[in-house]
Amino acid sequence: MKKIEAFIRPEKLEDIKEIMDELKLNGLSIMQVMGCGNQKGWTEFVRGAEVDYNFLTKIKIELFVTDDQSEAVISAITRKAYTGEYGDGKIFISDIQDAVRIRTGERGDDAIK
Ligand SMILES: Nc1ncnc2c1ncn2[C@@H]1O[C@H](COP(=O)(O)OP(=O)(O)OP(=O)(O)O)[C@@H](O)[C@H]1O
């Protein structure tokens, strides 16, 4: 199993939700986060003082998928989140050891399919 954590532009969320149906995924978590990457934010003057707004609002999508689903999920997110401008986001992928569906006690791939 893999954990896929994708940081995307908030306005891309609706497009990315379509992946659930397209790839027949069962679960997804979404968080609103503040962050920065190469897209550095902006500078404004507030009551005469220069203020850096270094952190922009992003959406973090967290998905746990089977190994055989992961490449399709990564390429679908990449395709839907892309604009070609700074701030398109990033995807982090890590290995997951196990999962449990509490209602049934199913483990591993069975718990997330
Ligand atoms: N190394 C990192 N660790 C944790 N979060 C990160 C990291 N890099 C990016 N993020 C998160 O991803 C969001 C989007 O980052 P951003 O698109 O600016 O990445 P980037 O690598 O600088 O890409 P680009 O060059 O396309 O702007 C950030 O606002 C932050 O929330």
TrEMBL record:
InterPro entries assigned to the protein according to its UniProt record, in alphabetical order: N-reg_PII, N-reg_PII-like_a/b, N-reg_PII/ATP_PRibTrfase_C, N-reg_PII_CS
Matches recorded under PANTHER family: NITROGEN REGULATORY PROTEIN P-II, NITROGEN REGULATORY PROTEIN P-II HOMOLOG
UniProt record similarity statement: Belongs to the P(II) protein family.
Record's protein name: P-II family nitrogen regulator
